Structures are given as C-alpha cells and as structure tokens.
Amino acid sequence: MWHMPMLFIISGAATYFALGYRSVGQYIRERFLRLFIPLAFGILTFVPFTIYIQHSDVLSLQEGYIGFFHIDLNQLDGMNGAFTPAHLWFILFLFVFSLAGLPIFQWLRSEKGRRVIESLATAMQAPLSLTVLGIPLTFAAATGILGAMNPLYYFLVFFYGFVLASDSRFQQSIDRLTWVVLVYGIFAATLNAIVPTESYTAWTPQWMASGLIYQMGRWALTLATLGLGHRFLNFTNHVLQYASEAAMPLYLLHMTFSVVTGDFVIQLDAPVAVKYPLIVLVATGLTLLAYELIRRWNVARLLFGMKPFKKDVSVSSTMTTVQPKI
Known about the structure:
Elements lengths: L2 H19 L2 H21 L1 H8 L7 H8 L20 H12 L1 H7 L2 H13 L10 H9 L8 H15 L2 H27 L10 H28 L5 H28 L6 H23 L3 H6 L23
Helix pairs in contact: 1-9, 1-11, 2-5, 3-4, 3-12, 8-9, 8-11, 10-11, 12-13
C-alpha cells in the first residue's frame, strides 16, 4: 500500500540532492550508469530466467529465453512466458522519470522556481495542508493506466519527493502530521482489507468514495513513514551504510532468488506456516550471498548499478562509505 510510493518519493528527493552538486550532463551520465545499465543487464539475464522458472514444466531453458523476447502488449506481466520488465519496472520508471522530468526539476532549482517552492512551503504550514496532495494522486490512480504500475501516479509521487526535499519546512509540516496521518492510514488500510475498492463497479459512487479513502490512506501512510523515519531513524551506523550500498543489487536480485527458492520449497510436504518463512529466509540469504560476491568486482558493481571501487579502496572499507540512494 505504501512501500512503492516510499521508494519513488525517496528517489525524487535523491534527484533534488543529486542536481545540487552535478551538472545536467553529469546527472544524465549517472542515471545511465546506475539505472539503465542494470535495467538492460537484468532484462537480458536474470529476468528471463525468473520467468522461465515459472514455466519450466513445459519449456526448455532455450525455449523460455527465446520466448521471453516475444512482446505481447496485452499481457506484460510475464504470466504467459512473454516479455515483462518484471520487478524492474521500478528501475525503468525511475530512469524515464529522471530524464523526462529534468526540465521541470531544473526550473524548480532556478530563482523563479525557488520562489514557487518557498510560497508552497509557506502554504503547507497550515494544518493538514500536505494531505491535500493526495487528491491529485487519487485522480491519477483512477485513470487505471497499467493498473498497479500507473506511471502517472508514480511520476506525481516522484515529483512530490523532489519538492518535499527542496525546503526544510515541508519536513516540519510532516513531523507535525505524523501521528494523525498514521492513524488515518491504518484506518484506510483496514477498511480496504475488509471491503476492497475492487469489490465495487468502476465509477459508481461507492467505487469513487472507496477509492478516495484508499488513495488518501496510501498518501497518509507515506507521509507517516517519512515522519517516523525522521523522528526515529535520523542517524547512521555501519549496518545502515552497508544496507545503503546494497539496496540496488538486493532489489535487482531478490525476485529471482524468491522464485527459485519457492519453486523448490512449494514441493515440500509442509504447511504454509513452514514454507513461507523458509522461502523468505533462504531467498534472503542467497540474495545477500550474491551481493557479497558482486560487491567485490568492479565489472559486477557496474552491472548492478553500484559505484566502482577506487584503486586505493578495499572491500572492507566500503562498510563505512555512504552511497547515494537511487
């Protein structure tokens, strides 16, 4: 409900900071290296293998790989064995948003843009004013473009992240709202679990009301997470620094190891209460093991969106180096 908006809002904020110390050319090059290369590498390698595993009972590995590159625009979820970006749709969207939104972001960093941001930050000091930003998100979600992977919705969230990072007063407003939006978000999530929006016919009054409650709840939980993070996680340590650098490789690989592990575990004669945690533990362990191998070679680091080692930097020293987030 809120984890994907959080990823996009953090990425939008990272874009604001990245443009603060990079030229446009440097920014585009960095986006190409950290987003496009791992996206292309994944689509050519582990994503086809992941889709093949789901159809391995009827296809050979060669058939699965060749069939993956057949594009069926009516079904891009990979369930028929054809092309899908799979979980890398997030990386694809980030790359497109980063470049398509660049003229807007550059303008917002100009003198005129700064004045607009300052005026907006002042207006957002009013109680509950930040929650109003959930209304455009609700309309964007209602378009239904690509279902749960709605590019209009997520570009707005990405844009919001950029804006919220541009003035510290936005965070002050979030801090004041944290507990209120957390309570509302939990209420909206609970209500949607009991009576899902999908249970109503589209564009009926009930569907629209339910959709508004749900989408405002998603935005509320996103704001609440930002507030709670600022309040309780506003520090760093070796574990967080390690996780920061590991974020991209772990995201790229987690789905493949989850599917491979699940393919074996589901065949066990055991209850779901045993199978599910077993899949989580084994898949997480394999993903971390793969990351430990990846982080040691510059070629692998490049393919997985990581910064290369400098010649005088050892693997162990990266435990204390904070890497910029996507």
